[in-house]
User: What shape does this take?
Amino acid sequence: MRANDAVNGLILILLAVAMFAVTSTFPEFPGQPHGPALFPRVLASILIICGGLLTWRGLAARRAGERWVVLAPWTREPWRVVSFFLMLISLLVYILVGETVGFIPVAFGILLSLFLWFGVRMLTAVITAVIATLLIHWFFSTLLRVPLPRGWLDPVL
Amino acid sequence: MDALITAAGLVFDPSVLWVIVASAAFGMFVGAMPGLTATMATALLVPVTFFMDPVPALGAIVTATAMAIFAGDIPAAMLRIPGTPASAAYTDESYAMSKKGELDLNLGVNLVFSVLGGLVGVAILIVSAPLLAEIAINFSSFEYFWLALLGLTCAIFMTTGDALKGITSLIFGLLINCIGIDPTAGYPRFTFGSIELLQGISFIPAMIGMFALSELLRGSVTVDEKGAVLAQKVGNIFTGVWAVFRKYWFNFLRGSTLGVAIGALPGAGADIAAWISFAVSKKFSKTPEKFGTGHIEGIVDSTSANNSALGGAWIPALVFGIPGDSITAIVIGVLYMKGMNPGPTVFLQNPQFIYAVFIIFILANLLMLPIGWAAIKSAKQILRVPRNVLLPIILLFCLVGAYAMTNSPYGIILMLVFGIIGWLMEENGFPIAPAILGLVLGELLEQSFMTSMIKADGNALMFFERPIAGVLGVLTVLLWGTMIWRGVMGRNATVAPT
Assistant: This one.
């Protein structure tokens, strides 16, 4: 997804203005002109200049015929679009239910669905998903002592 | 001397050696897989190294990156796909050699000169770092301010693409770094009441997101693309390498020293070192017409350069705490986590760690010979690992890695957000490395800036009064001037036709 530089520039300017606005709530210290707001304000000002230059350039490109937003060719193929979002959704699912359901079931589910969607054969997919899940669990949970959530498997583990 | 013995004791510990061998194999694999880069290898390793002592942690990163940079040459020669961006400069040349039936010689030269180049890089690192540290010990906040600014400026100056987008990316990284408790007054900024944002954006999940997740997202839409099939058999790769060395020893020396110099410049790493030394090689060659037809000369220069650049990048990282490339940017994050604040004081307080890094560097480069040979021999098997199996496993690895940094889903949320930001940035031509550099250097820059501002009390000349600060300051201002001038000229050129 490639946006015209004017769009990028405008987003950056909005971000910088918002940050500038937030810095006005920062406390001032009497007798000390250089407070916590100084550095972010300097950065936000530079970002506004950069955003302005980008916008200017983007508008020139726009006049030359560039579209506001150009989508990559793969976005017209539903299979690839789903592949892309499936990666993001997998992470979202883990964030939402990982703590209650536990690492092993969720990780196995994520791996298996991604494998199958990407066209790995059923048997290979199941075996690889089991081995990879257990291996990563063993490595991080047992070897490195990361408290991966146990969830449903708590009574078993 | 005592420190050296302690360092050797730290490195030659069975468990550390095991870590080094394992990360060597890991680095070879990641480097040889097209689409997975040396930086990604580091990003994936960091969550693991988090749980190690400093020496094995540094050992794992040093070894894995050295291997990955060499391993990128293997698919370049066999499939015409560089394994890492550092091999891109001479991929066509290598592939042309393979087509001429010189695959063995090409791989042999790549392996041997990568090892030698790496060793030159370490040698220069060993000699120059302590000397620089002695100068750096007298630095005040003014010098550090200019140094950090100069480092960031170099990072933009060296980006081959769009300077304006480089600056924007950098400023974005610095602004992200402002989130959390501010370093001088201790006031919580941009936290919006969140407790987790108080300690700032956790660096490692953000980095895994920007370097690894964004790469996976890009890979996910091309997962069904099949690589070319390689039919050529690999014979004895070491035949003829000695003859090449005798003929092109000067190219090797030139490439490796150039590589160290470019590696030491903040922001420019192995890939840029390879491009520049390949260009230099062609410019000064007696037979420039042979370039492009499968000629070994340019490969000698650039394959030495990209490995020596790795050592070079560690010079500013260890001495000033300013990363030479995106790999050392990650390393500096690791050093801070280990309580070893990089800078000249490490050389005084923990010299054994510095010596340990040197020893590991030498060891890793020597280890590259057998492991690299094994990787070349098993290249067929490595390159056959299907991407549709690899991608989901790496995704899970990223997920657990990000989780392990915060022991809560917060790490994964950060990784997800920064993964999407990183992907969008790359899609729109904003380089990622400056943003990461900004995130790493932000605190040093703000702290030295605020301290200097308070000391100077409004008198801008104070920033230039001390001799070294003055030189660094003038240099930085000059670089900015050049960049603005270049920007104005460039824009005129692009706007004129419309």
